[in-house]
Amino acid sequence: MALNDHDLSESGTDRADTVGETDLPHLRRCIELAAEAVEAGDWPFGSVLVDADGKILAEDRNRETSTGDPTRHPEFELARWAATHLPAEERATATVYTSGEHCPMCAAAHGWAGLGRIVYASSAQQARDWKAEWGVPITSPLSPLSVQDVLPGAVVAGPVAELAEQVRELMWRSRNGDRAED
Ligand SMILES: [Zn+2]
């Protein structure tokens, strides 16, 4: 576990760059979707797009293995959905919740679509640390850039230690491509 994890904001206020109480149900939904992905033989990632009033607009999970398309990340699908279905001003105030921090491809799509805040349960650095601990090779062909590396103006919150632990367990189940039941 990274040392710089920050948990729920102590003030309880909904600051944009911290994870607040209203964010938690959406993050839990992301983890449910990630679990569905694992059951289907895909990688354990799920994401939810929520409007400024807290209404869920769209959701998706990873579908890389089941479709054979390595770009089928849920964050990328939500950016495309938003670009197709929402006017620019609604995209800017929408929040993308996700079980694992956006990869550089998805962060770029998020930026091009002009979406708003990102909230993640676990960070990309955590995922890399877990894989290193397990001796699982990093297969991504991309540079390990954070969302802020790709999108310097992004408003980002996460990880949440308790939820990141759930993501870690899902990743453990998926670690060797043996994603059914172990
Ligand atoms: Zn991605």
Automatic annotation (TrEMBL):
Which Gene Ontology MF annotations are present?
Answer: catalytic activity
Q: Region annotation Disordered: residue ranges? A: 1-20
Write the signal peptide boundaries. Answer: none
Q: What is the protein's name according to its record?
A: Nucleoside deaminase
* SUPFAM superfamilies in the cross-refs: Cytidine deaminase-like
Note the InterPro entries from the entry.
Answer: CMP_dCMP_dom (IPR002125), Cytidine_deaminase-like (IPR016193)
Q: Where's the CMP/dCMP-type deaminase domain?
A: 21-145
- Please give the organism: Streptomyces adustus
PROSITE patterns cross-referenced by the UniProt entry: CYT_DCMP_DEAMINASES_2 (PS51747)
